[in-house]
Amino acid sequence: MQMFNGGNMKPVKIAMALLVSLQLFGQVEQSTDTYNKLGLPTFYYELLNYKTEGSAATRVDVFVQVPFNSLQFIKDGTGFKAEYTVTVSVYSKEKENLLTEKLWSEKITSQDFDQTHSRSNFNLSLKSFSLTPGEYVFVISVEDKDSRKKSSYDANFKVKAFENKIDISDLLFIGNKMTVDGKEKVFPNISKIISTAEGKISVYAEVYADSATLVLLKYYVSSKEKISILEKTSEKDLHQGINRITIETDSITLPLDNYVFTLVVEDLNSSTKATFNKGFFSRLEGVPPSITNVDKAIAQLIYLATTAELDSIKEAKTSEARLEKFLNFWKSKDPNKATPENEAFNEYYRRVEYTNIHFTHYTEGWKSDMGMVYIILGAPNSVDRHPFEYDSKPYEVWEYYQINRQFIFVDNTGFGDYRLTTPFYNDLERYR
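^ that's the sequence the OP posted. Answer follows.
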């Protein structure tokens, strides 16, 4: 229980029964709550369709990106190592029949222990499948060889048939570019999280043409409300077959939010047109991915920041100034400035997101009494639940052994709206 007080990447080429009793005992989850419940997966994956020349089958590239902090590193000589296995299973549409499967192992070494805890460092791998167009279920699993922890995701995926005169592969966002052994390597951005500091958005695609022709290439960047933010058009000569193209937008500043990139290829010699849309996320480097609105994130500081600190941030005249003060506040709380991760920053908003998932009722979970206690003190050591007492209203008792405190929450309405019986606001200064 924690109270609040004050890479190395592997190069990949781009071509490529509900049981109920009268008394229930439970445990509110600790800080090791699974990433996928918070929108932070233990690993990222991407499935991409590409045309195979001379074959009716489609090539499906499967990328798997595993952040270092999802793995258990152990001491190995002068450095540290982690090992894991990846399994990609392809099933029929109803998941009745296993059609094909690939399993492989990955090993990572690092000389810097702090880097092993970083989410920005990751290992990337790629496997390809040749499949007949149709609908499938992909099951992607990653298992840490040392901890034996396993994470899996199911993905319904349509394998495309490239039958039109002009067609487009799936889009792939491009991440970092690095020089390895004198050659420039491109790293796909599998997470689709684009830092607002990068300024430009890079995308790779393949355009397929039955014959040589002149086309208009159009791309759009739009908000989730379908409001166009950036658009550009250019002409391009296509040769027959596969045309590999890379698009890099002009410099663009995007507030934290979700966006859509659209690519349109229009044949000027016919009415043929192909379109592909792909969503992405604009995030700030070093800011927890769960934060999508800075003003709301500032408001959520109520349990940690003093009134004077909050007023100072909120009174900034521009959104840029508020963001700068917000980030400076968290820099002052960083427990280890020598590492790229701000553990306090990440943990605080992990707790906020946890409360929104589990305690939202009439109001957002972070504003609830349970949310307040959880954000400030973390997960309790024990939870005693009494949802079906004959002689009392439903209630829960949370125990925190280290501070010798218990908190009783009562559902006075009978609709799951649990309220703290003893006010806690006077204790805030103790934990800031």
